[in-house]
Amino acid sequence: MSGQIVPAQTRITNPFDSETFIFTHPHDGGASTRFDVILGAGGSGGGNAIPHIHPKTDEIFTVRRGRLMVSIDGEEHFVDAGQSATVHAGQAHFFRNAHDGETEATVTFTNAQQHQRFFIDLARLTAEKPHYFSKNGDPKLLTTALKLNAYRDHLYIAGPPIALQKFLFALLSPLAFLLGYRLAVSPLRGAGLRAARKAAAVRPAS
User: Fold this and answer.
1) CATH number of the domain enclosing 43
2) For the Cupin type-2 domain, which residue ranges apply (predicted)?
3) Residue partners of 39: CB distance under 8 A and separation at least 6
């Protein structure tokens, strides 16, 4: 299907934090986008539980089974099966499993941007390029620089000014590339992005 990044229902497990991504709707374009995550006992999400922000979209966590803890601006919110929690654009957050078994949730970005590609890339890098991460699963500085410079305005680390992060990542990204760092899934640009948006406009709602 036009605009499909990977086959629907593709599962990729982050080996560092017991998080399995299920890409239920892996399409480019569209107004919003979503995928599922399954967290094992003790599992976390949000870049190995690193507080971060999405500057241009709200993020909604809808729990299907288990219990999720979503930290929003330093305050813990517990979300049970059938409930949702919304993180507004610009709010610092991360999430973790608050259940002694698995927790499954749907993650929705109200402004799609290219978050499907962003998270497919992240999941693939953890599985295929573990040396891009520390032994605890934190992305190395050059990994972060390459990814966040490519996917501008999708995600930033909570705390440091965004302008400073943009400057630093733009500075370090060429070095990362020179040293052999590569994305698994690159963002669309130009004609490719326009074509994906056109395909999304005629794709049946699901």
Assistant:
1) 2.60.120.10
2) 46-107
3) 18, 19, 20, 45, 66, 68, 96, 97, 102, 103, 104, 105
